Amino acid sequence: MSDTTSCIEFKDVVAGYKDFMILNNLSFKAQKGTITLLLGPNGAGKSTVLKTLFGLLKPRQGQILLDGAEIGGATQKQLLAQGIAFVPQGRNLFGQLTVFQNLELGGITLGMKTTHERIPEVLEFFPRVKERMNSMASALSGGEQKQLEIGRALLLRPKVILIDEPSIGLSPLVVQDVFKLLRRLADQGTTVLMVEQNVKSALKISDEAIALESGRLVLQKPASELLADPHIERLFLGGAHGAAAAPTDLTAVV
Length: 254
Description:
This protein is α/β, with parallel strands linked by helices. The protein has a domain at about 1-85 and about 190-254: 3-Layer(aba) Sandwich (Rossmann fold). The chain is about 30% helix and about 25% strand. It has helices at about 45-55, 75-80, 100-105, 110-125, 125-130, 140-155, 170-185, 200-205, 225; strands at about 5-15, 20-30, 35-40, 60-65, 70, 85, 160-165, 190-195, 210-215, 215-220. Strands 6-7-8-3-9-10 form a 6-stranded mixed β-sheet, sandwiched between helices. It has a 4-stranded antiparallel β-sheet with strand order 2-1-4-5, with helices on one face. A hairpin with a 2-residue loop joins strand 4 and strand 5 (about 70). Helix 3 (about 100-105) crosses helix 4 and helix 3 packs parallel to helix 6 (about 140-155). It starts with 5 loop residues before the first strand and ends in a 27-residue tail after the last helix.
């Protein structure tokens, strides 16, 4: 269930690579127990938000808050301990290890006793992966691999899941299964911050949508409202804050 208390908050965050800043005084809030979808054209800073939040990039200025406490600049180990898990884009498994061994590695910060206690709990979300516990991860289908990655993150019982382009390489049916799982997790109280190219489907299961342009917030509104907006293509053509874009059929741009 959603909560009116802010779970994640960016306050005037500046972050980037060496002298090239991607996020430029970015400010937004994501509420507890909701799915917040990050939108915008290529280079807008969507994935950089997730990387900065997970400590892969250090903010140059500004604040990042989790439940009101400053976490900007914390290490990944510290962020995992505070309940933030990251499922990056692409495949991030150990292909020559079994499903079970990959799950064990996912719980390495918990200790083996706790990890082994939690693995059956996590596998209840993924019946097909459960059936293939002794298979090599490389032998799984793309959908099964993505489910295993998410399952590995769930071992930590995270308060926040950051997920970057979960639909890449997956069939439409598997994508729907992944989205349903994310919706279920949010309904159970997990906060989900997602970057996703399959915009129309993602908006359907999201609560809030945030549009970025040049690393700045240009729009934040309920996902259902944005889904019904005939001008949604402006989010992808670099003019989300403009007023002059011509109306276009939503299905043509998503």
